[in-house]
Specification:
The structure holds two protein chains of two kinds.
Chain A (H helix, E strand, L loop, with lengths): L6 H9 L6 H9 L2 H4 L2 H27 L7 H16 L5 H23 L4 H21 L1 H4 L5 E2 L20 H25 L1 H11 L1 H6 L4 H26 L2 E2 L6 H14 L6 H17 L5 H15 L3 H24 L1
Antiparallel strand pairs in A: 1-2
Helix pairs in contact in A: 2-9, 4-9, 4-12, 4-13, 4-14, 5-6, 5-7, 5-12, 6-7, 6-12, 9-10, 9-12, 10-12, 13-14, 13-16
Chain B lengths: L2 H32 L6 H18 L6 H23 L9 H23 L15 E4 L2 E4 H23 L1 H11 L1 H6 L4 H23 L9 H16 L4 H21 L4 H15 L11
Antiparallel strand pairs in B: 1-2
Helix pairs in contact in B: 1-5, 1-8, 1-9, 1-10, 2-3, 2-4, 2-8, 2-9, 3-8, 5-6, 9-10, 9-11, 10-11
The chains are: A mainly alpha, B mainly alpha.
């Protein structure tokens, strides 16, 4: 698998001696929120962080590899259910249930992905959708294990007493502690995904996105790469699902319905799928808008649909794409002015 | 398992199959010709159902209220579909298919809420047309006349559609466009009008199916996102873009669902999804479709 990268590419990748650790920066910026913000802010931020993790995992497929998965919510759901069942039904601790959720989701995506990567384009999208609906059907019907349409209510919070030992955290409420825990875990996951995207493996994925045939032609085992990233993305989606189930104190079949896959896809594209930090921006904008708008009207889907239309017709690069373009335009004008002055 | 039980399951499967065929055929034709996977097709079906209820309420005392309503629902949805295609969808041909998918999903969101806004969230129902009220006995099971009507209507539309596709000049053009639309355009055919026409016909079928289901199932919000997944499964089993494939796909779907309930009551939905997954794994282009590059 070790294909020689062209030398200039390698050098440019190594040339930067120091890179801004964006994940750490964002983590440190968001950490003080429980002290400075209201309970509501903390609540909203928890949701945004979980959604951001979920959307970043989708973008490994969508933006990085160019795989349109319309069933990514399946692995989110598997994670949520596995974590919920382990913690609620069997009384396992979070320290066991959380990794188990990611592992189970990765396992599911290995099995499903094995078949999905055989297909391309629209057929890939359809098969991922079909598999996610299979997961939904199981969750919806298998009363004995998943609770059927009632789902699993009252998933307990993880035991977070150990946080009291850390100075500064002992005064926090249970919800705030969960926020800190979520933020930490999500930051670790996102940092890992950033590393994957930057790695030679990630570069290969981008090569596959840009031209599948050529990537195969230079000797890349395209399917193996696609399956690997499918499993990785599924695993991280499982982590997001596990956190979400605890956050909403319950896991329900609605979480796995196919429209949820569309939802996270909108998030990713709204932020800008060509940017690593696009999906978190999308999660931020969409979750915040959702909270604001549902205060006024119950017709949130209508607003979301309208946002989506505007996005598709006016801002196809997403928020970050639009900002970058605007910034470049300003720079160009400035440099033009400067040359005129000189 | 008695004969009457088998007959009952078979007929209920057949009724489901014919509805699914009506809905999925439009979806399949649009995909075959325009390469657009239309999530909003289920929303068109839902709007058709609501329109039928609305028209029936308006013209209640009239004798043929139901038939007027069914036709009005089909036509209004067809016009609506045509407008959508002309004004919006048209601008998205040739862009990444992800954007087309999301466009039709945006329609799902908007139309779903528009329907809730207009007709509320209550369950609405429409009576069977008086002509088809009543039922008869067949192999020890009771068959409503309305179900028989649907079971006969399905193949009738299938044969008519098949004939139009294979014999008429418009049908020939459509089949040619399904093979190579750029070539058809280069040969001087008006591809734009063809697409609009295709979309209008497909919307009409969706609206009609929505209207015809109202005597059997009540009209509720959320029926759009439920039915579209079923229609996808039918189309995928039969072969995306294949007209007759859709017909047989619907038959297989209907019977699997209906007999699956007997075999494993809890997991009949699961059986259908599994069927779709198997078809996609073995023959990704469906039973009667052909591989698309």
């Amino acid at each position: 698998m070790s294909l020689p990268l062209s030398r200039p590419m390698l050098r440019s990748a190594r040339a930067k001696p120091w890179r801004v650790p964006w994940t750490l920066v964002v983590f440190l910026l968001l950490l003080p929120l429980p002290w400075i913000g209201s309970r509501y802010d903390t609540f909203l931020a928890t949701q945004i962080v979980i959604d951001a993790l979920f959307a970043v995992s989708l973008n490994l497929l969508l933006g990085t590899t160019g795989l349109v998965s319309f069933g990514h919510v399946a692995y989110f759901g598997v994670g949520a259910y596995v974590c919920g069942i382990l913690m609620k039904t069997y009384g396992f601790s979070f320290a066991i249930a959380f990794p188990a959720a990611g592992l189970a989701a990765a396992l599911f995506s290995l099995v499903f992905g094995y078949f999905c990567v055989r297909l391309t384009k629209i057929y890939f999208a359809m098969l991922t959708l079909a598999f996610s609906q299979i997961v939904w059907a199981i969750c919806f019907k298998w009363d004995a294990v998943t609770g059927g349409d009632q789902g699993i209510a009252d998933v307990p919070f993880p035991n977070m007493h150990w946080m009291s030992a850390i100075p500064g955290l002992d005064g926090l409420s249970e919800n705030s502690r969960f926020y800190v825990l979520t933020l930490t875990l999500a930051a670790i996951c996102i940092a890992a995904m950033a590393q994957i995207t930057r790695s030679p493996f990630g570069r290969m994925l981008t090569a596959i996105r840009d031209n599948r045939e050529r990537a195969a032609f230079i000797g890349l085992n395209v399917r193996a790469y696609e399956l690997t990233v499918f499993v990785v993305a599924g695993g991280f989606a499982g982590f997001a699902g596990a956190l979400y189930g605890i956050f909403t104190r319950g896991v329900f079949p609605d979480y796995v319905f196919w429209t949820q896959s569309a939802q996270v896809m909108i998030m990713t594209i709204l932020g800008g799928m060509n940017f690593f930090w696009g999906p978190p921006v999308g999660a931020l904008v969409l979750d915040w808008l959702n909270q604001e708008i549902t205060n006024y009207t119950q017709y949130w889907p209508f607003v979301l649909g309208t946002i989506l239309l505007v996005l598709l017709f006016a801002l196809p690069g997403g928020v970050l794409g639009g900002l970058t373009r605007g910034y470049r335009a300003v720079q160009r004008r400035r440099s033009r002015l400067r040359t005129r002055d000189a | 398992m008695t004969i009457s039980l088998i007959a009952a399951q078979f007929l209920s499967g057949l009724t489901t199959a014919m509805f699914l065929f009506l809905i999925a055929s439009g979806l399949s034709l649009v995909f075959g010709v325009m390469r657009v996977l239309n999530f909003a097709h289920g929303s068109f079906y839902m709007i058709g159902a609501y329109m039928a209820w609305q028209v029936v309420t308006w013209v209640q005392p009239t004798g043929g209220a139901f038939w007027i309503a069914a036709l009005a629902a089909g036509v209004s949805v067809a016009i609506f579909g045509g407008i959508i295609e002309r004004l919006l969808l048209r601008h998205l041909y040739g862009v990444d298919e992800l954007y087309q998918l999301l466009f039709t999903y945006a329609l799902v969101l908007i139309l779903g809420d528009a329907a809730k806004f207009t007709w509320g969230t209550d369950q609405l129902s429409v009576h069977r047309p008086p002509v088809l009220d009543g039922s008869f006995q067949w192999l020890g099971t009771t068959v409503p006349y309305y179900n028989l009507f649907i079971i006969l209507l399905g193949p009738a539309i299938a044969i008519a559609g098949g004939l139009i596709l294979s014999r008429s000049s418009a049908g020939r053009l459509l089949r040619a466009a399904a093979y190579d639309r750029e070539m058809v355009g280069a040969l001087g055919a008006n591809v734009g009008a063809l697409y609009t026409g295709m979309f209008v016909v497909s919307s009409f079928l969706a609206g009609l199916a929505g209207a015809l289901i109202t005597p059997i199932e009540s009209v509720v919000p959320g029926m759009d996102v439920q039915i579209i997944v079923d229609a996808f499964i039918v189309v995928v089993i039969g072969g995306l873009g294949s007209f007759w494939g859709t017909f047989w796909g619907a038959m297989i779907y209907g019977q699997t669902l209906s007999f699956g309930i007997l075999a494993f009551p809890q997991f009949s939905v699961f059986a259908v999804f599994a069927l779709m997954a198997v078809v996609l794994i073995v023959r990704p282009w469906g039973l009667m479709g052909r591989p698309i590059r």
